[in-house]
Amino acid sequence: MPDAADAPHLPPISDACWPEELAPLRGSFATGLNVYRVMAHHPDLLTAWAPLRDHLVRHSTLGPERAEIVVLRTGYRMWSTYEWAQHVHRARELGMTDARIASVRGPLDAMAPDDATLAGAVDALFDAREVPRPLQAEVVKLAGAEGLIDLIATVGFYVTLGGLLNSFDVPLDDDVAAALDRDPPPS
């Protein structure tokens, strides 16, 4: 097994070194977050990623708070410090309480029922690689068939990001780090 020091490290690409083929994404989400500055090492992938990211982040049928529950649980299950911190910050911006955010790290029976349904579907994808039919029915009742599909796609999307974040030890974005230094995330 290779030594950890031999592992490739891809730092976030600075504005000065931003790839010319990604010029259309300059000033967008891609330059706003370190995870996408790392993904910019593969311009074709980041370009292809953009429309899916736009759908899942801005147009998900889950709605903003439900989507954040899904992302937070995925970040927790991925052991992604960056993903968790980034989405604690986003959840707070949506007005979610620290108690609700913290509950996402705990057992399903300690969560609000709707949050437990969503987190249970995330857990099922991690543990069984599928959402079983009874749980599918609960998610559909809560968020519709499109919501169920958005949930599954969101988990896959953030598992991929979590893999990048964990593999390359991507540093937390300065604004999020400063906000969480002022008001630490719930434990």
TrEMBL record:
In which domain of life is the source organism classified? Answer: Bacteria
Q: Which GO terms describe its molecular function?
A: peroxiredoxin activity
Q: Domain Carboxymuconolactone decarboxylase-like spans what residues?
A: 43-118
Q: Which InterPro entries match?
A: AhpD-like, CMD-like
Q: Transmembrane residues, as ranges?
A: none
One Pfam entry for this protein is CMD
The record ties this protein, via PANTHER family, to:
4-CARBOXYMUCONOLACTONE DECARBOXYLASE FAMILY PROTEIN (AFU_ORTHOLOGUE AFUA_6G11590) (PTHR34846:SF11)
Protein name as annotated:
Carboxymuconolactone decarboxylase
Q: What is the lineage of its organism?
A: Bacteria, Pseudomonadati, Pseudomonadota, Alphaproteobacteria, Rhodobacterales
